[in-house]
Amino acid sequence: MAETTAAPIDRILQHIKYLSVDIGPRGSTTEGERKGAEYCQAEMQRAGLAPVTERFRSAKSIFLPHLIGSGLFLAAFILYPTGGRVTAFIAFLVSAISLASELLELGFIDNPFRWIIPKGTSQNVVGIIPAEAEHRQDLVLIGHIDTQRTPLVFSTPRWVEVYKNFTTVAFVLFSLQVVLYLGGWATGWGWIWPVSGVSAAGAALLALLCIQADLTPFTAGANDNASSVGMVLTLAEQLSQHPLKHTRVFSVCTGCEEVQHYGAIDFFKRHRAEMVRPRGLVFELLGCAGPAYLEKEGIIVPFHSDPELVRLVKEAGAQGSAKPPYPVSISGGNSEMADCVRFKVPAISIFGLKPDGEAPYWHQAGDTFDKMNPAVLRDTYQLVWQAIQCLDQEAG
Ligand SMILES: [Zn+2]
Q1: Cα separation, 234 vs 388, whole angstroms
Q2: Measured in Å, how far apart are the chain's first and last C-alpha atoms?
Q3: What does the alpha-carbon distance between residue 269 and residue 290 come to, in Å, rounded to a whole number?
Q4: Sequence-ordered strand ranges (E) for 184-266
Q5: What are the phi and psi torsion angles at 147 (to 5°)?
Q6: For residue range 297-338, what is the model confidence (pLDDT) as tens digits?
Q7: How far is the C-alpha of 145 from the C-alpha of 392, rounded, in Å?
């Protein structure tokens, strides 16, 4: 297998280099992201596929909804004491609507924040490789083109930890403010407003973090996530030369993952109905650590990898020259596996976290091409290639 995969590794590195060096930062809905999609379209075409670029509207910032949310909690705090029970009730309503919207936003569900935030145009690139013999199942390969900003809260592993804990605390404080203001409206107790100063302080801090985040530049995104786009494009090229027997493959390079997965959601809305026994293989951060597979992910709401696909990936790692993968999980974020699961597509993420859970160069200015580790990419490619072959054989 070593000889046959030498070329694919070179191809993956070429793709990462073009995306992260020649194009550079690819913020959601920006010109850079559009150029990245054009490149994917051209490369899939060159590989003999007939790719389609599918456009959609998307949010431009992942932080703006939370800035609006924290602003509303602050506004409720200021309003509360100004007019007795009436303003207490309005402050309760504003806080409750804000909390509900925050929860819906974290769950990728439409909400009032999304009705008012500015939107831009983005695109997915989708290439389909038919099965060679009878078509019995589908496989969806997903890697996102866009890159995130470089906020203070992602600058070091310690900051990431602090931020993760702070978001949990903020959520508890906001829930508390809703309960307190409901109680304040019902009872008129005087101690309630000063106590709610704690949640107001939390809201102010969150607002500042969101403003800081939206003022930072976008990363070049070599690891997150040109590495995965390179994987999808290389697999597409190899699979079009060596098609699977019973598995049709959707190669999907998505836009706007970094702003709550507008691209993956658009893809499944368009294509889910035409799929036959689909399975999802989602890629994240493949260039520095791994091979690793995700067991569990999610912010507050957890999503799990499909147990059958976990078995398959483990078996693939025990065969041939593939290196056995290790399991990882994330509690402060989501991959597009969450979209697969929500559209009833059993899925697994191949997610290059370190064994201790650290995400290398995640949303940092240092996420550049020179950090790519060819040995890690080769091991991951071999594992994925082997897993795809096993999946196809099991349908035979
Ligand atoms: Zn990513």
Answers
A1: 13
A2: 22
A3: 31
A4: 247-254
A5: -120, 155
A6: 987 778 999 999 999 999 999 987 768 999 999 887 899 999
A7: 27
Tens of pLDDT, residue by residue over 78-114, are: 999 999 999 999 999 999 999 999 999 988 889 999 9
Q: How does pLDDT run across 343-394, given as a tens digit for each residue?
A: 999 999 999 999 998 999 999 999 999 999 999 999 999 999 999 999 999 9
Give CA–CA dist 35/51, Å, rounded.
15
∠ Cα 377 348 343 (to 5°): 135
Q: How confident is the model at residue 258 (pLDDT cuts 50, 70, 90)?
A: very high
C-alpha 292 to ligand 1 mean position (Å): 15
- Ligand 1: distance of its center to the CA of 92 in Å? 36
Cα–ligand 1 centroid distance for 203 (angstroms): 27
What is the rounded distance in angstroms from the CA atom of residue 71 to the CA atom of residue 212? Answer: 15
CA 386 – CA 396 distance, rounded (Å) = 16
Distance 214 CA to ligand 1 centre (A): 17
**How far apart are the CA of 342 and the centre of ligand 1, in A?**
18
Q: Within 13 Å, how many C-alpha atoms sit on residue 323's CB side?
A: 16
CA of 334 to the centre of ligand 1 (A): 9
Which of 272, 257, 252, 287 has the alpha carbon at shortest distance from 369? 287
The count of other CB atoms within 10 Å of the CB of residue 301 is 13
Tokens of 201: 């302080």
Cβ pair 202, 171 in contact under 8 A: no
| Helices 2-17 and 227-241, axial angle in degrees (round to 10) | 130
Q: Which residue has the tokens 């995700």?
A: 294
Q: How far is the CA of 282 from the centre of ligand 1 (A)?
A: 10
Helix (H) / strand (E) containing 143: strand 137-144
pLDDT band at 2 (very low <50, low <70, confident <90, very high): very low
Distance 260 CA to ligand 1 centre (A): 11
Model pLDDT, residue 5: 46
Whole-number Å distance, alpha carbon 363 to ligand 1 midpoint, is 9
Q: Which domains does the chain have, with CATH numbers?
A: 2-59+120-150+217-394 (3.40.630.10), 64-115+154-214 (no CATH)
